[in-house]
Amino acid sequence: MSSMNQLSTALMLVVMPLGTAYAIEDSCLFENNRDATTRIQYSCVLANGDGNCESSGSGFIVSESGLVITNDHVIRPAGNVTVESEEIYVKTGSLGAGSVRATVVARDKVNDIALLQLPPRDYGESWQSVAIGTAVPTPVGDSLMALGFAGRELAMIPNGMKTAELAEVDGVYRPWWQTNLALNEGNSGGPVFGSNGTVIGISVAYKRSSQLISYVIPIYYAKPFLEQAGAQAVVYSSCATYPECRNKIHGIERYAVDMTVDKLGEWQAKKSSRPEFCNAYLSKLQSQFPKSEFTYLQSSQHTAMNGRKREHIYYCKFQRLEGPIYKLARSEFCLQ
C-alpha cells in the first residue's frame, strides 16, 4: 500500500491529506510563483519485506540555494513502519519539467513541516523563490489563494478565505486555519498566499465529509526552517494591487486655497524698509491664517515729495496656500 493511501485511510473519518494588497492579480501571482512551486514525488522501500510506498504532494522554494518547504507527511510513509531506503524527486513549475533529486534537511513531525534541499542549478543559476509574508495576524474573512499539484499540472486555487482560527481534527484542536479553499490530494505542502501576494501558509489537509472545508498551517510554524534558509519576510509582493488613495507620499496635486494676498501701505514720512514692512505684514497673515503657508512673491517701495516733506509707501505680495490635496494614486501607503 502506498504511503499516501495509508495516510488517507488513517484520516478518512475526518480529513484527507492534501497531496492577501487589497487584491492580487491572479495571473501575476501564478506566473511569478510558477517556477518556485514544486511537485514532490516520494517513494520508499520498507524494511522486513513489507513492500514499497509512494506518495506525492507540493512544496515551494524559499531560498535561491534551493531549499524547499513541504509537509512532513508528503515525504514519510504512514504508520509505524521502518524505511529501508527512500527517494525524493522534485519538479518545478510544470509536470513537463525535468526531475531533480532532493534530500531531507530537517523535519518537524509535530507541525507536519519538512525542509528539502535541491541540487545546485546548472551554470550557477539561482532557484526562483516565493515571497514570504511577515508574521502579522490574518483575520477570519481575509482572502486566500493557493498553488499546487492536485492534478498532474500546476494549478491555482482561487477565491478562498480564512473561515476559522483553529481546526478540529480527530477530536483534537490543531493550530491550523480552517479555510474554504478547494484543496485536494496533491496540494499538501503547497504555498498559500494572502491578500498582499506573499506566502502566509502551507496547505495541509481537507475535510472529506464536507464541502470546502480545508486546513492551512500558518507560515509562522515554519519559522525555524525559514531562518535556516535565510528567507527574509516582506510585507507586499510584486503582485499586490493596492487601492487608490490620496496620500502625502504621492505628492501634492493642488490646494483647497491657492490665492495671492497683498498689501499697499499708506504714505508716511518716516522711512522704513521693504523687509520690515513685508515681515510685519507676514506676521499678521500668519496670525490670521495659522494653517496656511505663505510664499513671498513681490515687493516694492516708492518715494515722493509732498510739499517740502519726503514721504514713502511700501507694497508686498505673498502666495497663500492651505489645505493640500494629494495626488490620487495606488500604493502600499493606502493600506495604512
UniProtKB/TrEMBL annotation:
NAD as UniProt keyword: no
InterPro entries per record: Peptidase_S1_PA, Peptidase_S1C
SUPFAM superfamilies attached to this UniProt entry: Trypsin-like serine proteases (SSF50494)
GO BP term, pick one: proteolysis
One example GO MF annotation: serine-type endopeptidase activity
Alphabetical UniProt keywords: Signal
Signal peptide: 1-23
Name the UniProt record assigns to this protein: Uncharacterized protein
